[in-house]
Write a structure and sequence with these properties.
40% of the residues lie in helices and 19% in strands. The chain has 240 residues and is of the alpha/beta class.
């Protein structure tokens, strides 16, 4: 597996170590940035497949950098940081991050998560089929265009980052079925033993903010206490 990676961190030793581990796994196109300014310039010049991002950078908070990156690219962003508070993790996932790993970390785990993100990206690209009609999941209030990677809500296109799209697509493909948080994590992030419940719940919350009339009283994506989540084929009440 290979892909164009951008590692953003001001610790030279950490960048060297990650580069060494990634090279052993066959990654040949790895770029580095030690500041937010440098990262933004590189993203303007190169189409990366994944970005690994620290939060504590010398010139700009990593959260703000993530927001700015989301204005120009929708590739997966993996936070790799010493910030371990749950609120930091939730913030990182809420503003557009796709995964969150805290320092100190196991380098093999970082590589595994990078591979999982890239694998999901490649599967999405393989959906292209010019001779076929575009596959659409139409739920009335919103439509998901599988091959185009688009989400329409009440006739308006809504931005939907890769992991949110994959999660919603999985639920659309299996309406009215209950899935546990661990099952959803394994299906979307491709990892079983190192799953994080917050990751799934934050992405569910972000999807509700996009498709629900009232995210605090969801009609489409509902929680079944003690069991997990399911997407209803029609809302609990008429969503007009």
């Amino acid at each position: 597996m290979d892909g164009r990676l951008l590692l953003v961190d001001d610790e030279a030793g950490l960048l060297d170590m990650l580069n060494y581990m990634l090279a052993k796994e066959g990654f040949e196109h790895v770029s580095f940035a030690t500041s937010a300014k440098e990262a933004l310039e590189l993203v303007q010049e190169t189409d990366f497949d994944l970005i690994v991002l620290d939060i504590m950078l010398p010139d700009l908070d990593g959260f703000e950098l993530c927001r700015r990156l989301r204005e120009v690219t929708m590739v997966p962003i993996l936070f790799l940081t010493a910030r371990t508070m749950d609120m930091d993790k939730i913030m990182g996932l809420t503003i557009g991050g796709d995964d969150y790993i805290t320092k100190p970390f196991n380098p093999l785990e970082v590589v595994a998560r990078i591979k999982a993100q890239l694998r999901r990206q490649s599967l999405t690209k393989l959906q292209e089929a010019p001779d076929k009609e575009v596959e659409v999941y139409d739920f009335g209030a919103f439509q998901l265009f599988k091959q185009e990677g688009r989400l329409m809500v009440h006739g308006q296109e809504v931005s939907c980052p890769a992991k949110e799209f994959e999660l919603l697509l999985f639920l659309c493909e299996h309406p009215n079925q209950i899935f546990s948080i661990s099952h959803l994590y394994e299906q979307i992030w491709g990892l079983e033993s190192i799953g994080d419940e917050n990751t799934v719940m934050v992405h569910i919350r972000r999807l509700r903010q996009k498709i629900e009339k009232n995210p605090n009283d969801p009609k489409w994506i509902i929680n079944i206490r003690g069991m997990g989540y399911k997407l209803l084929s029609s809302p609990k009440e008429t969503d007009k």
